[in-house]
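Deliverable D4.2, example record:
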Amino acid sequence: MRKRILLLFLVLAVSVAVSGVQAQQRVPKTAIVNSEHDLRSTFNAASFTLCTFCHVAHKPGDAPEGPGPLLWNHTLSSVTSYGVYSSESFDALNTDITDLGGQMTVSNLCLSCHDGTVAVNSFYEPILGANFQPIPEGTTFMPDSARIRDLTKSHPVNFTYDSALANAAALRVPASTSSVDGNGLVPLFGGKMQCATCHDPHNGNSGIFARPFPAQTSGTFCTYCHI
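Output generated by the structure prediction step:
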């Protein structure tokens, strides 16, 4: 009986330790504070509008103007085509990459600002400034240095990342359709890789808003998937 109790305590201790490691790896949403995605100082907005530049708690109506994904508060882009990545090696895998233009995907939420066609301060619901008046809309656009308009020259996104592709392309086999690593640190969206698979828009601790990839010895998180 005493051995069983001791074994139970050991199992619990290991579980708590593992949970603690995973919790430490995750980046809290508050890491967005004072980052480039913290737009309060940019628009002299009141302190309670940190999240409402991108999200809105109450959003009536039908998508895309209505609820949509992540209660998005930013006007979506009307670009119909961004093109898709193509290379001899990638094309040989017969991977179907869908053009993001006009779609409602996680990547398109990023591009609604980063393609530079819609003002950063263009919202579904008005954002209040420090004087509690709505800040002017449609006046500030993404700088050229941060614009992405041609996805043929970028890492491919919006393709299915499954075990078949992983085995054919020497990639890490994903743990599930929602996460490469199984713990949600490297997420997939409906089994597809999107911009937010590698980038966390809330992670202001990283200069490129990178996900907290599981520890790698190579010095780059690219080798986590590209094994």
